[in-house]
Known about the structure:
The structure holds two protein chains of two kinds. Chain A is α/β, with parallel strands linked by helices. Chain A is built from 26 helices and 24 strands. Chain B is mostly helical. Helix content of chain B is 72%, strand content 0%. The longest helix of chain B is centred in the first third of the chain and has 37 residues. The interface between A and B is medium-sized, with 28 and 18 residues.
Amino acid sequence: xxxxxxxxxxxxxxxxxxxxxxxxxxxxxxxxxxxxxxxxxxxxxxxxxxxxxxxxxxxxxxxxxxxxxxxxxxxxxxxxxxxxxxxxxxxxxxxxxxxxxxxxxxxxxxxxxxxxxxxxxxxxxxxxxxxxxxxxxxxxxxxxxxxxxxxxxxxxxxxxxxxxxxxxxxxxxxxxxxxxxxxxxxxxxxxxxxxxxxxxxxxxxxxxxxxxxxxxxxxxxxxxxxxxxxxxxxxxxxxxxxxxxxxxxxxxxxxxxxxxxxxxxxxxxxxxxxxxxxxxxxxxxxxxxxxxxxxxxxxxxxxxxxxxxxxxxxxxxxxxxxxxxxxxxxxxxxxxxxxxxxxxxxxxxxxxxxxxxxxxxxxxxxxxxxxxxxxxxxxxxxxxxxxxxxxxxxxxxxxxxxxxxxxxxxxxxxxxxxxxxxxxxxxxxxxxxxxxxxxxxxxxxxxxxxxxxxxxxxxxxxxxxxxxxxxxxxxxxxxxxxxxxxxxxxxxxxxxxxxxxxxxxxxxxxxxxxxxxxxxxxxxxxxxxxxxxxxxxxxxxxxxxxxxxxxxxxxxxxxxxxxxxxxxxxxxxxxxxxxxxxxxxxxxxxxxxxxxxxxxxxxxxxxxxxxxxxxxxxxxxxxxxxxxxxxxxxxxxxxxxxxxxxxxxxxxxxxxxxxxxxxxxx
Amino acid sequence: xxxxxxxxxxxxxxxxxxxxxxxxxxxxxxxxxxxxxxxxxxxxxxxxxxxxxxxxxxxxxxxxxxxxxxxxxxxxxxxxxxxxxxxxxxxxxxxxxxxxxxxxxxxxxxxxxxxxxxxxxxxxxxxxxxxxxxxxxxxxxxxxxxxxxxxxxxxxxxxxxxxxxxxxxxxxxxxxxxxxxxxxxxxxxxxxxxxxxxxxxxxxxxxxxxxxxxxxxxxxxxxxxxxxxxxxxxxxxxxxxxxxxxxxxxxxxxxxxxxxxxxxxxxxxxx
Lengths: 666, 271
């Protein structure tokens, strides 16, 4: 299949063949640009006007979807083949009650009478594990959380009792604890509904949790397909292996590393194997001719001539943590005392009249210190306040109350001068697409912080070249615009900008979450190297506990604006756990099909930060809530061990007796 | 390249029209068969043909020549007024959108008040206050354009100012002025170009209207509005003195509108 574009034809999918049986989940994984979504749209025959199918067929229940008449296609699409998209918000009609929306699908496909449709809608809501279906049916989509919305979309997709359900990154925008519940639901559907499910994700760990069989796409080609257990245990294609090696392992049993090179331009593909330029196992023959699909085992195929060598090569050695425990506790470079940030709604009049909505409690009474030279990770789900906290550290927002003080590493003097502060304290944002001005060239972006600090023009030029080299980018990139760079390269530019002034404290706000796995690992390496070189201190904001375990010294866990647990990595990863930390840890998907099912499930959604629950903020979802005390009294942070603090009413002795969550502690 | 131009007919046609208009008016002294002010009373109000390709006006001046030269004041006033409008409107819109809050509220209420006057009425008031001259016409139309431009720029600023690169600029200690003009403004060029190209057409029309009312360009300068004003009295003797500047005016305005539409489709990626 190809797309005609102004630069020529893009062959988005080439020679992809697979089948899915009823009641089976076929997972498709690959990086952005690999053709995953194109595949999904091709099956729905819902392609852009510039797309042409050059050959092949898509058989569904005995008929070729690509040759169906428009009428027949319409009767299949949405009913026999249904799709669940990444963003539930755009798939739901915001002005229609949930129950009606589902009933409408049933009526369009003439699956139920008007009266029957309403009842069937409730059944479908119950099928996707929505508590209290009657109440939800009367709600509008915006009144529901992201996880609930995604369940609704799934319920709508199931309305026509589809033979094939295509799910395109259905959990990508969701928090880990919500994701765990959706994955559970998908796994259950396979048995309850008996549909064939095509599950698309960039995240191999997620794929491992739900799939029976897995296909790996690279640059539009299916490079490997195998039963899930086979694929994750004995990956036969170097790309599959590269993807797995690029994932940080939460148990620290192995190191993680990037796949070298750049994703190929689909306009000018090499003659031989598409992966050859980035392959660790490449030999001369690879570049000459395209390899054929080799049979590795039963139902296990790989498009590689050297698969035997790939399988025979031993796995990567055990991880050397990039942040080994600090031997001494250095004096703090940043102190946060009783910091509180509430977002008030504007409008003096409304507030005076008492009509304004309550403020959003983004951060409430948070106290901690960041010690010189350490990496402090702040983790938690969306809405926990970690990003606000980062911005408060940078003085980008005024605190509602409490203080943030930043000191120089050497002298211990507090920084008061604004220019000095901006030089010494820097930030890297989550998404380099929006943190780099799209109209500025790399050279201009990197020179700017130096110009502000009064560095002369020739000195700036020289320093910019040094910086590019430090983040391992070619000097040729100086005159490029951000859009001419890949995601990973853009983030390197953003990192170079942050380090341009030789900072002592760097806040990294989810710097890896917008990147493909293959480039994540190289950015981690880069950050570690820069920290050692500059002896800098990091505040690393993240939701990815696997990653944090590899590169942080200490972890602070946040929930709804509060710090609920703080301690060294080892302390946080073993009991006693705060019940929320425990739930987070057990929700992390791991790329191992045998390690399925979360042990701790969190019910419900994160409550609104406008009206945070009284007492312990976690009590509404806590699986081990004690009783009234949790609802009424706010638990203080209490010391569990040396540097380990947590805020919970459950006696520490009881928490200590709990079994560790999955992870092995070194 | 050719394929891309043809994929966007408004842009292609608009560019073609304006290219011709611009070339002919710039080269008017070379192309025009007579002098602008060259009178020949015996040849007055002639029909097209013979010595005068498009005929003559009531003083026997060549209409082709007058129309070509009239394009100069039209373009000068149109482009100049919009440039002036941008000069005032862009910083006001940027500041208002960037500052937000009460500052934004106050500036936008003033802009709303100004926008509620018809632009021509506002221009008339300014001319009344300043007196009649070409320069004052330019000033009046320019100022009348500023509030609309300010509004567009403000709304675009609101869309851009929440991008992380603005926060990144603050985090490295950039001044507010630099963030507005150095970071945000370059991202507004596309909407500004679109808005400006559509406004030039209207500004030309406004300048012609002022001249028509006798409040803009003064005789004996060649100007389309002025030509129409003068031709009005002889309409029953010859329609050519009216038709020539009228058609030229219409064609130019259509040209700018097509250019604006085409530029919008092109820059917002709809074609």
